Structure prediction request, 533 residues.
Amino acid sequence: MSDSPVDPEEVRHVADLARVDLDDAELAEFSEQFADILDYFEALDEVPEIDSEPELVNVMRPDEVHDGLTQEEALRNAPETEDGFFKGPTVS
Amino acid sequence: MSSDHSSPTDDAHDGPSDDTHNAFITDASVEGDGEGPLAGKTVAIKDNISTDGVRTTCGSAMLADYVPPYNATVVDRVLEAGGTLNGKTNMDEFGMGGTTETSAFGPVENPVDTDHVPGGSSGGSAAAVAAGEADLALGTDTGGSVRNPAAFCGVVGIKPTYGLVSRYGIVAYANSLEQVGPLATTVEDAALLLDVISGPDDRDATTNDGGADSDYAAAAHGDVDGLTVGIITDLIEGADDDVVETFEASLDELEAQGAEITEVSLDSLEHAVQAYYVIAMSEASSNLARFDGVRYGPEGDHEGNWNDAFAAVREEGFGPEVKRRILLGTYALSAGYHDKYYKKAQDARAWVKQDFDEAFEDVDVLASPTMPVTPPTLGESLDDPLQLYLMDANTVPVNLANLPAISVPAGEVDGLPVGLQLIGPKFGEETIIRAASAAEQ
Prediction:
Protein backbone atom coordinates (compact mmCIF):
# COMPACT_ATOMS: atom_id res chain seq x y z
CA MET A 1 0.00 0.00 0.00
CA SER A 2 1.22 3.47 -0.77
CA ASP A 3 1.43 5.84 2.19
CA SER A 4 0.52 9.04 0.42
CA PRO A 5 -2.32 9.55 -2.04
CA VAL A 6 -1.78 11.14 -5.43
CA ASP A 7 -2.29 14.92 -5.22
CA PRO A 8 -6.06 15.43 -5.74
CA GLU A 9 -5.30 18.43 -7.95
CA GLU A 10 -3.38 16.14 -10.30
CA VAL A 11 -6.34 13.74 -10.46
CA ARG A 12 -8.62 16.71 -11.13
CA HIS A 13 -6.32 17.85 -13.94
CA VAL A 14 -6.36 14.42 -15.61
CA ALA A 15 -10.14 14.25 -15.22
CA ASP A 16 -10.38 17.63 -16.97
CA LEU A 17 -8.20 16.34 -19.81
CA ALA A 18 -10.44 13.25 -20.09
CA ARG A 19 -13.63 15.36 -19.88
CA VAL A 20 -15.01 13.50 -16.87
CA ASP A 21 -16.52 15.47 -13.97
CA LEU A 22 -15.76 14.01 -10.54
CA ASP A 23 -17.52 14.76 -7.27
CA ASP A 24 -15.48 15.27 -4.08
CA ALA A 25 -16.00 11.70 -2.86
CA GLU A 26 -14.78 10.23 -6.18
CA LEU A 27 -11.81 12.59 -6.17
CA ALA A 28 -10.75 11.45 -2.68
CA GLU A 29 -11.24 7.75 -3.50
CA PHE A 30 -9.35 7.92 -6.81
CA SER A 31 -6.47 9.83 -5.20
CA GLU A 32 -6.00 6.97 -2.71
CA GLN A 33 -6.42 4.16 -5.25
CA PHE A 34 -4.25 5.73 -7.93
CA ALA A 35 -1.32 5.88 -5.50
CA ASP A 36 -1.42 2.08 -5.05
CA ILE A 37 -1.97 1.36 -8.75
CA LEU A 38 0.74 3.75 -10.00
CA ASP A 39 3.13 2.36 -7.37
CA TYR A 40 2.50 -1.07 -8.83
CA PHE A 41 3.09 0.20 -12.39
CA GLU A 42 6.48 1.57 -11.26
CA ALA A 43 7.93 -1.95 -11.57
CA LEU A 44 7.79 -1.54 -15.37
CA ASP A 45 10.97 0.45 -14.88
CA GLU A 46 12.84 -2.88 -14.55
CA VAL A 47 11.79 -4.01 -18.04
CA PRO A 48 14.69 -4.01 -20.53
CA GLU A 49 14.39 -2.30 -23.90
CA ILE A 50 13.24 -4.90 -26.45
CA ASP A 51 13.75 -4.79 -30.22
CA SER A 52 10.65 -6.10 -31.92
CA GLU A 53 9.06 -6.13 -35.33
CA PRO A 54 5.45 -4.95 -35.45
CA GLU A 55 3.15 -7.86 -36.31
CA LEU A 56 0.55 -5.79 -38.09
CA VAL A 57 1.13 -4.47 -41.58
CA ASN A 58 -0.80 -1.94 -43.61
CA VAL A 59 -3.61 -3.54 -45.56
CA MET A 60 -4.45 -1.73 -48.82
CA ARG A 61 -7.65 -2.03 -50.81
CA PRO A 62 -9.19 -0.24 -53.77
CA ASP A 63 -11.20 2.83 -52.80
CA GLU A 64 -14.67 1.72 -53.84
CA VAL A 65 -18.07 3.09 -52.91
CA HIS A 66 -20.24 0.73 -50.82
CA ASP A 67 -23.63 1.24 -49.22
CA GLY A 68 -23.34 2.72 -45.74
CA LEU A 69 -25.81 3.77 -43.09
CA THR A 70 -28.63 6.02 -44.18
CA GLN A 71 -28.84 9.46 -42.59
CA GLU A 72 -31.87 8.29 -40.63
CA GLU A 73 -30.01 5.24 -39.29
CA ALA A 74 -27.00 7.32 -38.32
CA LEU A 75 -29.16 9.77 -36.39
CA ARG A 76 -31.42 7.18 -34.77
CA ASN A 77 -29.57 7.01 -31.44
CA ALA A 78 -28.82 10.71 -31.07
CA PRO A 79 -30.52 12.38 -28.09
CA GLU A 80 -31.02 15.56 -30.14
CA THR A 81 -31.10 16.23 -33.87
CA GLU A 82 -32.08 19.19 -36.02
CA ASP A 83 -32.75 19.28 -39.78
CA GLY A 84 -30.99 15.93 -40.30
CA PHE A 85 -27.92 16.83 -38.24
CA PHE A 86 -26.61 15.83 -34.84
CA LYS A 87 -27.20 18.61 -32.34
CA GLY A 88 -24.35 19.25 -29.91
CA PRO A 89 -23.78 21.66 -27.07
CA THR A 90 -22.70 25.26 -27.62
CA VAL A 91 -19.15 25.74 -28.84
CA SER A 92 -17.70 28.69 -26.98
CA MET B 1 -32.03 16.97 -15.88
CA SER B 2 -31.79 14.69 -12.89
CA SER B 3 -28.41 14.77 -11.17
CA ASP B 4 -28.43 11.23 -9.78
CA HIS B 5 -26.83 8.33 -11.59
CA SER B 6 -29.34 6.62 -13.81
CA SER B 7 -30.17 3.16 -12.58
CA PRO B 8 -31.15 0.89 -15.45
CA THR B 9 -31.37 -2.01 -12.98
CA ASP B 10 -34.76 -0.89 -11.78
CA ASP B 11 -36.70 -0.65 -14.98
CA ALA B 12 -34.73 -1.60 -18.05
CA HIS B 13 -34.01 -5.29 -17.55
CA ASP B 14 -35.76 -7.24 -20.23
CA GLY B 15 -34.14 -10.67 -20.16
CA PRO B 16 -35.84 -14.00 -20.75
CA SER B 17 -38.47 -14.82 -18.12
CA ASP B 18 -36.45 -17.86 -17.00
CA ASP B 19 -33.34 -15.69 -16.48
CA THR B 20 -32.86 -16.47 -12.81
CA HIS B 21 -29.24 -15.35 -12.54
CA ASN B 22 -29.49 -11.88 -14.21
CA ALA B 23 -27.38 -13.32 -17.03
CA PHE B 24 -29.27 -11.35 -19.69
CA ILE B 25 -29.75 -7.62 -20.14
CA THR B 26 -32.11 -7.85 -23.13
CA ASP B 27 -34.26 -10.66 -24.45
CA ALA B 28 -34.20 -11.35 -28.18
CA SER B 29 -35.32 -13.95 -30.64
CA VAL B 30 -33.60 -13.59 -33.98
CA GLU B 31 -33.72 -16.74 -36.04
CA GLY B 32 -30.93 -17.74 -38.39
CA ASP B 33 -31.08 -18.99 -41.96
CA GLY B 34 -32.07 -22.59 -42.59
CA GLU B 35 -29.86 -25.60 -42.12
CA GLY B 36 -26.40 -24.55 -40.97
CA PRO B 37 -24.13 -26.19 -38.41
CA LEU B 38 -25.84 -24.15 -35.65
CA ALA B 39 -29.41 -25.06 -36.71
CA GLY B 40 -31.60 -25.64 -33.66
CA LYS B 41 -29.07 -24.05 -31.29
CA THR B 42 -29.61 -20.91 -29.21
CA VAL B 43 -26.69 -18.50 -29.00
CA ALA B 44 -26.47 -15.76 -26.36
CA ILE B 45 -24.45 -12.69 -27.37
CA LYS B 46 -22.39 -10.51 -25.02
CA ASP B 47 -23.84 -7.03 -24.89
CA ASN B 48 -20.82 -5.26 -26.38
CA ILE B 49 -21.38 -7.08 -29.71
CA SER B 50 -23.61 -5.07 -32.06
CA THR B 51 -26.97 -6.58 -33.00
CA ASP B 52 -29.10 -4.87 -35.65
CA GLY B 53 -32.28 -3.59 -34.01
CA VAL B 54 -31.51 -5.20 -30.64
CA ARG B 55 -30.35 -2.94 -27.80
CA THR B 56 -26.60 -3.16 -27.10
CA THR B 57 -25.70 -1.54 -23.77
CA CYS B 58 -22.13 -2.70 -22.97
CA GLY B 59 -23.47 -3.00 -19.40
CA SER B 60 -23.37 0.79 -19.18
CA ALA B 61 -25.91 3.49 -18.38
CA MET B 62 -24.18 5.44 -21.17
CA LEU B 63 -25.66 3.06 -23.77
CA ALA B 64 -28.84 2.03 -21.90
CA ASP B 65 -30.99 2.96 -24.92
CA TYR B 66 -28.52 2.35 -27.77
CA VAL B 67 -29.89 0.23 -30.63
CA PRO B 68 -27.26 -0.53 -33.32
CA PRO B 69 -28.24 -0.08 -36.98
CA TYR B 70 -26.09 -3.07 -38.08
CA ASN B 71 -24.80 -6.49 -37.02
CA ALA B 72 -21.26 -7.32 -35.98
CA THR B 73 -19.66 -9.73 -38.48
CA VAL B 74 -19.71 -12.52 -35.86
CA VAL B 75 -23.46 -12.06 -35.42
CA ASP B 76 -24.05 -12.31 -39.19
CA ARG B 77 -21.97 -15.49 -39.24
CA VAL B 78 -23.92 -17.08 -36.36
CA LEU B 79 -27.21 -16.29 -38.15
CA GLU B 80 -25.91 -17.57 -41.51
CA ALA B 81 -24.92 -20.80 -39.72
CA GLY B 82 -28.52 -21.26 -38.54
CA GLY B 83 -28.11 -20.18 -34.91
CA THR B 84 -30.91 -18.38 -33.05
CA LEU B 85 -29.91 -15.33 -31.00
CA ASN B 86 -31.82 -15.58 -27.74
CA GLY B 87 -30.54 -12.58 -25.85
CA LYS B 88 -27.84 -10.08 -25.00
CA THR B 89 -25.83 -11.02 -21.96
CA ASN B 90 -24.83 -9.04 -18.90
CA MET B 91 -21.21 -7.96 -18.54
CA ASP B 92 -18.83 -5.74 -16.62
CA GLU B 93 -19.31 -2.19 -17.88
CA PHE B 94 -17.48 -1.91 -21.25
CA GLY B 95 -15.69 -5.18 -20.36
CA MET B 96 -13.86 -3.55 -17.46
CA GLY B 97 -13.93 -6.02 -14.61
CA GLY B 98 -13.50 -9.68 -13.77
CA THR B 99 -16.65 -10.39 -11.77
CA THR B 100 -19.59 -8.86 -13.77
CA GLU B 101 -20.26 -6.67 -10.72
CA THR B 102 -19.41 -3.38 -12.49
CA SER B 103 -22.48 -3.77 -14.76
CA ALA B 104 -24.98 -0.91 -14.54
CA PHE B 105 -27.66 -3.64 -14.80
CA GLY B 106 -26.74 -5.39 -11.56
CA PRO B 107 -24.46 -8.34 -10.84
CA VAL B 108 -24.85 -11.85 -12.28
CA GLU B 109 -25.04 -14.88 -10.00
CA ASN B 110 -22.85 -17.90 -10.60
CA PRO B 111 -25.29 -20.74 -11.45
CA VAL B 112 -22.95 -23.26 -9.76
CA ASP B 113 -23.25 -21.43 -6.43
CA THR B 114 -25.41 -18.31 -6.40
CA ASP B 115 -23.53 -16.64 -3.54
CA HIS B 116 -20.53 -16.32 -5.83
CA VAL B 117 -19.63 -14.19 -8.85
CA PRO B 118 -19.64 -15.81 -12.31
CA GLY B 119 -16.35 -14.14 -13.23
CA GLY B 120 -16.14 -11.60 -16.00
CA SER B 121 -16.29 -9.61 -17.95
CA SER B 122 -18.36 -12.06 -20.08
CA GLY B 123 -20.09 -13.31 -16.90
CA GLY B 124 -23.59 -13.29 -18.38
CA SER B 125 -22.49 -15.40 -21.36
CA ALA B 126 -20.82 -18.00 -19.11
CA ALA B 127 -23.74 -18.06 -16.66
CA ALA B 128 -26.29 -18.44 -19.50
CA VAL B 129 -24.43 -21.48 -20.84
CA ALA B 130 -23.81 -22.97 -17.38
CA ALA B 131 -27.49 -22.59 -16.45
CA GLY B 132 -28.70 -24.08 -19.75
CA GLU B 133 -30.36 -20.80 -20.77
CA ALA B 134 -28.40 -20.83 -24.04
CA ASP B 135 -26.73 -23.70 -25.89
CA LEU B 136 -23.76 -21.52 -26.83
CA ALA B 137 -22.57 -17.99 -26.21
CA LEU B 138 -20.19 -15.38 -27.54
CA GLY B 139 -18.00 -13.32 -25.25
CA THR B 140 -15.04 -11.01 -25.78
CA ASP B 141 -11.60 -11.53 -24.22
CA THR B 142 -9.34 -8.50 -23.75
CA GLY B 143 -7.40 -9.79 -20.74
CA GLY B 144 -9.22 -13.02 -19.88
CA SER B 145 -12.88 -12.02 -20.15
CA VAL B 146 -13.93 -15.29 -21.85
CA ARG B 147 -11.61 -17.68 -19.98
CA ASN B 148 -12.16 -16.22 -16.50
CA PRO B 149 -15.97 -16.66 -16.44
CA ALA B 150 -15.68 -20.01 -18.24
CA ALA B 151 -13.40 -21.21 -15.42
CA PHE B 152 -15.59 -19.76 -12.65
CA CYS B 153 -18.85 -21.19 -14.09
CA GLY B 154 -17.42 -24.61 -15.00
CA VAL B 155 -17.78 -24.28 -18.79
CA VAL B 156 -15.42 -24.10 -21.79
CA GLY B 157 -14.19 -20.80 -23.25
CA ILE B 158 -11.75 -20.02 -26.06
CA LYS B 159 -9.69 -16.86 -26.67
CA PRO B 160 -8.58 -17.10 -30.34
CA THR B 161 -5.30 -15.92 -31.85
CA TYR B 162 -5.42 -12.15 -32.46
CA GLY B 163 -6.80 -11.63 -35.96
CA LEU B 164 -8.54 -15.01 -36.25
CA VAL B 165 -11.99 -13.52 -35.60
CA SER B 166 -13.39 -10.22 -36.91
CA ARG B 167 -13.86 -7.40 -34.41
CA TYR B 168 -16.15 -5.45 -36.76
CA GLY B 169 -19.15 -4.35 -34.70
CA ILE B 170 -17.51 -4.93 -31.31
CA VAL B 171 -17.69 -1.84 -29.11
CA ALA B 172 -13.97 -1.20 -28.68
CA TYR B 173 -12.28 -1.23 -25.29
CA ALA B 174 -8.63 -2.12 -26.10
CA ASN B 175 -8.36 -2.93 -29.80
CA SER B 176 -4.84 -4.36 -29.81
CA LEU B 177 -5.75 -7.00 -27.19
CA GLU B 178 -9.33 -8.10 -27.75
CA GLN B 179 -10.88 -11.01 -29.62
CA VAL B 180 -14.38 -12.48 -29.72
CA GLY B 181 -14.48 -16.02 -28.32
CA PRO B 182 -17.01 -18.87 -27.90
CA LEU B 183 -18.37 -20.38 -24.67
CA ALA B 184 -20.07 -23.80 -24.47
CA THR B 185 -20.51 -26.76 -22.15
CA THR B 186 -18.18 -28.98 -24.23
CA VAL B 187 -14.90 -28.41 -26.04
CA GLU B 188 -16.41 -29.71 -29.28
CA ASP B 189 -19.32 -27.23 -29.16
CA ALA B 190 -17.00 -24.33 -28.41
CA ALA B 191 -14.78 -25.42 -31.32
CA LEU B 192 -17.81 -25.64 -33.61
CA LEU B 193 -18.81 -22.06 -32.79
CA LEU B 194 -15.21 -20.96 -33.39
CA ASP B 195 -15.37 -22.59 -36.84
CA VAL B 196 -18.47 -20.48 -37.56
CA ILE B 197 -17.09 -17.08 -36.45
CA SER B 198 -13.42 -17.32 -37.54
CA GLY B 199 -11.95 -16.31 -40.87
CA PRO B 200 -11.01 -13.10 -42.67
CA ASP B 201 -13.33 -10.09 -42.90
CA ASP B 202 -12.66 -7.16 -45.19
CA ARG B 203 -14.30 -4.90 -42.60
CA ASP B 204 -11.53 -5.66 -40.06
CA ALA B 205 -8.06 -5.15 -41.53
CA THR B 206 -6.45 -6.96 -38.58
CA THR B 207 -8.08 -10.27 -39.56
CA ASN B 208 -6.08 -12.83 -41.50
CA ASP B 209 -6.80 -16.14 -43.18
CA GLY B 210 -5.58 -18.26 -40.22
CA GLY B 211 -9.14 -19.38 -39.58
CA ALA B 212 -10.35 -19.80 -43.16
CA ASP B 213 -11.69 -23.30 -43.96
CA SER B 214 -11.06 -24.40 -40.37
CA ASP B 215 -12.37 -27.61 -38.84
CA TYR B 216 -11.62 -27.03 -35.18
CA ALA B 217 -14.50 -29.25 -34.05
CA ALA B 218 -12.77 -32.26 -35.63
CA ALA B 219 -9.72 -31.58 -33.44
CA ALA B 220 -11.76 -32.36 -30.30
CA HIS B 221 -10.97 -36.07 -30.64
CA GLY B 222 -9.40 -36.52 -27.20
CA ASP B 223 -6.09 -38.05 -28.35
CA VAL B 224 -3.06 -36.45 -26.66
CA ASP B 225 -0.60 -39.29 -27.11
CA GLY B 226 2.85 -37.74 -27.68
CA LEU B 227 1.76 -34.15 -26.96
CA THR B 228 4.22 -32.10 -24.85
CA VAL B 229 2.63 -29.88 -22.19
CA GLY B 230 4.73 -27.27 -20.35
CA ILE B 231 3.55 -26.07 -16.93
CA ILE B 232 4.25 -22.34 -16.54
CA THR B 233 5.73 -22.38 -13.04
CA ASP B 234 5.53 -18.58 -12.71
CA LEU B 235 1.72 -18.83 -12.85
CA ILE B 236 1.53 -21.51 -10.15
CA GLU B 237 3.33 -19.49 -7.48
CA GLY B 238 0.54 -16.97 -6.92
CA ALA B 239 -2.32 -19.49 -7.04
CA ASP B 240 -4.24 -20.93 -4.07
CA ASP B 241 -2.97 -24.37 -2.95
CA ASP B 242 -6.22 -26.23 -3.56
CA VAL B 243 -6.52 -24.67 -7.02
CA VAL B 244 -3.00 -25.89 -7.80
CA GLU B 245 -3.84 -29.41 -6.56
CA THR B 246 -6.88 -29.57 -8.85
CA PHE B 247 -4.79 -28.24 -11.74
CA GLU B 248 -2.07 -30.85 -11.14
CA ALA B 249 -4.64 -33.65 -10.97
CA SER B 250 -5.91 -32.66 -14.43
CA LEU B 251 -2.35 -32.78 -15.80
CA ASP B 252 -1.83 -36.22 -14.23
CA GLU B 253 -4.88 -37.25 -16.21
CA LEU B 254 -3.31 -35.98 -19.46
CA GLU B 255 -0.05 -37.74 -18.62
CA ALA B 256 -1.93 -41.00 -18.09
CA GLN B 257 -3.30 -40.56 -21.63
CA GLY B 258 0.18 -40.32 -23.13
CA ALA B 259 1.06 -36.61 -22.89
CA GLU B 260 4.50 -35.61 -21.70
CA ILE B 261 4.49 -33.00 -18.89
CA THR B 262 7.42 -30.63 -18.37
CA GLU B 263 7.98 -27.31 -16.59
CA VAL B 264 8.91 -23.94 -18.09
CA SER B 265 9.55 -20.52 -16.55
CA LEU B 266 9.00 -17.19 -18.33
CA ASP B 267 10.75 -14.28 -16.56
CA SER B 268 8.77 -11.61 -18.39
CA LEU B 269 5.47 -12.69 -16.83
CA GLU B 270 6.34 -10.82 -13.64
CA HIS B 271 5.52 -7.64 -15.58
CA ALA B 272 2.52 -8.88 -17.57
CA VAL B 273 -0.25 -7.48 -15.36
CA GLN B 274 1.44 -4.07 -15.18
CA ALA B 275 1.95 -3.98 -18.94
CA TYR B 276 -1.57 -5.20 -19.64
CA TYR B 277 -3.27 -2.56 -17.51
CA VAL B 278 -1.16 0.32 -18.83
CA ILE B 279 -1.89 -0.68 -22.44
CA ALA B 280 -5.57 -1.53 -21.91
CA MET B 281 -6.27 1.68 -19.96
CA SER B 282 -4.41 3.80 -22.51
CA GLU B 283 -6.39 2.34 -25.40
CA ALA B 284 -9.61 2.67 -23.38
CA SER B 285 -9.00 6.36 -22.67
CA SER B 286 -8.90 6.96 -26.43
CA ASN B 287 -11.70 4.58 -27.44
CA LEU B 288 -14.19 5.83 -24.88
CA ALA B 289 -13.69 9.47 -25.91
CA ARG B 290 -16.54 8.92 -28.40
CA PHE B 291 -19.15 8.75 -25.62
CA ASP B 292 -20.08 12.40 -25.32
CA GLY B 293 -23.88 12.38 -25.45
CA VAL B 294 -24.12 13.73 -29.02
CA ARG B 295 -24.43 10.70 -31.34
CA TYR B 296 -25.71 8.39 -28.59
CA GLY B 297 -25.94 8.42 -24.82
CA PRO B 298 -27.96 10.30 -22.22
CA GLU B 299 -29.50 13.60 -23.22
CA GLY B 300 -27.13 16.43 -22.37
CA ASP B 301 -29.05 19.67 -21.82
CA HIS B 302 -26.29 20.88 -19.54
CA GLU B 303 -25.22 24.45 -18.95
CA GLY B 304 -21.88 25.81 -20.10
CA ASN B 305 -19.67 25.17 -23.10
CA TRP B 306 -19.22 21.88 -24.92
CA ASN B 307 -16.38 20.65 -22.69
CA ASP B 308 -18.52 21.22 -19.60
CA ALA B 309 -21.45 19.45 -21.26
CA PHE B 310 -19.38 16.44 -22.33
CA ALA B 311 -17.80 16.13 -18.85
CA ALA B 312 -21.25 16.20 -17.23
CA VAL B 313 -22.65 13.50 -19.54
CA ARG B 314 -19.60 11.30 -18.93
CA GLU B 315 -19.82 11.80 -15.14
CA GLU B 316 -23.41 10.59 -15.32
CA GLY B 317 -23.05 7.79 -17.88
CA PHE B 318 -19.89 5.99 -16.70
CA GLY B 319 -19.51 3.89 -13.55
CA PRO B 320 -16.50 4.10 -11.20
CA GLU B 321 -14.32 1.39 -12.80
CA VAL B 322 -14.72 2.91 -16.27
CA LYS B 323 -13.81 6.36 -14.94
CA ARG B 324 -10.83 4.88 -13.12
CA ARG B 325 -9.48 3.30 -16.29
CA ILE B 326 -10.13 6.34 -18.51
CA LEU B 327 -8.30 8.58 -16.01
CA LEU B 328 -5.35 6.23 -15.50
CA GLY B 329 -5.05 5.73 -19.27
CA THR B 330 -5.16 9.48 -19.86
CA TYR B 331 -2.44 9.86 -17.21
CA ALA B 332 -0.23 7.13 -18.73
CA LEU B 333 -0.39 8.80 -22.15
CA SER B 334 0.04 12.38 -20.93
CA ALA B 335 3.14 14.47 -21.59
CA GLY B 336 5.96 13.49 -19.27
CA TYR B 337 4.56 10.04 -18.44
CA HIS B 338 4.26 8.39 -21.87
CA ASP B 339 7.83 7.03 -21.87
CA LYS B 340 7.68 5.96 -18.22
CA TYR B 341 4.47 3.93 -18.52
CA TYR B 342 3.23 3.34 -22.08
CA LYS B 343 6.57 2.82 -23.80
CA LYS B 344 7.84 0.51 -21.04
CA ALA B 345 4.58 -1.45 -21.22
CA GLN B 346 5.13 -1.95 -24.96
CA ASP B 347 8.64 -3.25 -24.22
CA ALA B 348 7.20 -5.65 -21.64
CA ARG B 349 4.64 -6.81 -24.20
CA ALA B 350 7.39 -7.57 -26.74
CA TRP B 351 9.33 -9.42 -24.04
CA VAL B 352 6.32 -11.57 -23.14
CA LYS B 353 5.90 -12.45 -26.85
CA GLN B 354 9.57 -13.43 -27.12
CA ASP B 355 9.35 -15.60 -24.00
CA PHE B 356 6.33 -17.47 -25.36
CA ASP B 357 7.96 -17.94 -28.78
CA GLU B 358 11.02 -19.48 -27.13
CA ALA B 359 8.91 -21.76 -24.91
CA PHE B 360 7.02 -23.11 -27.93
CA GLU B 361 10.31 -24.27 -29.45
CA ASP B 362 10.25 -27.04 -26.80
CA VAL B 363 6.58 -27.73 -26.04
CA ASP B 364 3.31 -28.06 -27.96
CA VAL B 365 1.07 -26.35 -25.40
CA LEU B 366 1.58 -24.42 -22.16
CA ALA B 367 -0.62 -24.94 -19.08
CA SER B 368 -1.66 -23.03 -15.96
CA PRO B 369 -4.70 -22.72 -13.74
CA THR B 370 -7.03 -20.30 -15.62
CA MET B 371 -7.66 -18.33 -12.43
CA PRO B 372 -5.41 -18.37 -9.36
CA VAL B 373 -8.46 -18.49 -7.07
CA THR B 374 -11.99 -19.90 -6.97
CA PRO B 375 -14.88 -17.45 -7.61
CA PRO B 376 -15.12 -14.75 -4.88
CA THR B 377 -18.44 -14.22 -3.10
CA LEU B 378 -20.66 -11.49 -4.52
CA GLY B 379 -19.69 -8.04 -3.19
CA GLU B 380 -16.40 -9.26 -1.74
CA SER B 381 -13.87 -7.78 -4.13
CA LEU B 382 -15.06 -4.45 -5.50
CA ASP B 383 -13.46 -1.98 -3.08
CA ASP B 384 -9.83 -2.80 -3.90
CA PRO B 385 -9.25 -2.38 -7.67
CA LEU B 386 -5.57 -3.36 -7.56
CA GLN B 387 -6.40 -6.73 -5.96
CA LEU B 388 -8.92 -7.36 -8.74
CA TYR B 389 -6.31 -6.53 -11.39
CA LEU B 390 -3.90 -9.04 -9.84
CA MET B 391 -6.55 -11.77 -10.21
CA ASP B 392 -5.88 -11.54 -13.99
CA ALA B 393 -2.24 -12.65 -13.68
CA ASN B 394 -2.74 -15.95 -15.53
CA THR B 395 -4.95 -14.72 -18.36
CA VAL B 396 -3.42 -11.40 -19.51
CA PRO B 397 -0.09 -12.80 -20.83
CA VAL B 398 -2.00 -14.55 -23.63
CA ASN B 399 -3.56 -11.29 -24.85
CA LEU B 400 -0.23 -9.45 -24.71
CA ALA B 401 1.31 -12.19 -26.87
CA ASN B 402 -1.67 -12.41 -29.31
CA LEU B 403 -1.91 -16.18 -28.66
CA PRO B 404 -4.85 -18.63 -28.51
CA ALA B 405 -5.90 -20.20 -25.19
CA ILE B 406 -8.76 -22.31 -23.89
CA SER B 407 -10.20 -22.80 -20.41
CA VAL B 408 -11.67 -26.22 -19.71
CA PRO B 409 -13.18 -27.46 -16.40
CA ALA B 410 -10.48 -29.20 -14.31
CA GLY B 411 -12.53 -30.12 -11.24
CA GLU B 412 -13.89 -28.40 -8.14
CA VAL B 413 -12.70 -27.05 -4.80
CA ASP B 414 -15.45 -26.99 -2.13
CA GLY B 415 -18.07 -27.19 -4.88
CA LEU B 416 -16.59 -24.28 -6.87
CA PRO B 417 -15.19 -24.82 -10.38
CA VAL B 418 -11.49 -24.65 -11.26
CA GLY B 419 -10.37 -24.11 -14.87
CA LEU B 420 -7.37 -25.53 -16.69
CA GLN B 421 -5.88 -23.03 -19.15
CA LEU B 422 -4.09 -24.44 -22.21
CA ILE B 423 -2.15 -21.96 -24.36
CA GLY B 424 -1.03 -22.61 -27.93
CA PRO B 425 1.34 -20.97 -30.40
CA LYS B 426 -0.08 -18.50 -32.93
CA PHE B 427 -2.88 -20.25 -34.89
CA GLY B 428 -2.43 -23.34 -32.66
CA GLU B 429 -6.19 -23.55 -32.03
CA GLU B 430 -6.37 -27.19 -33.15
CA THR B 431 -3.66 -28.21 -30.69
CA ILE B 432 -5.26 -26.57 -27.64
CA ILE B 433 -8.69 -27.94 -28.64
CA ARG B 434 -7.19 -31.41 -28.93
CA ALA B 435 -5.51 -31.14 -25.50
CA ALA B 436 -8.62 -29.65 -23.88
CA SER B 437 -10.85 -32.40 -25.24
CA ALA B 438 -8.62 -34.96 -23.51
CA ALA B 439 -8.69 -33.01 -20.24
CA GLU B 440 -12.49 -32.65 -20.32
CA GLN B 441 -14.09 -34.55 -17.45
Summary: The domain at 15-275+344-439 of chain B is CATH 3.90.1300.10 (Amidase signature (AS) enzymes). Confidence is low (pLDDT under 50) at residues 1-13 of chain B. DSSP finds 13 helices and eleven strands in chain B. Chain B touches chain A through 63 residues (CB under 8 Å).
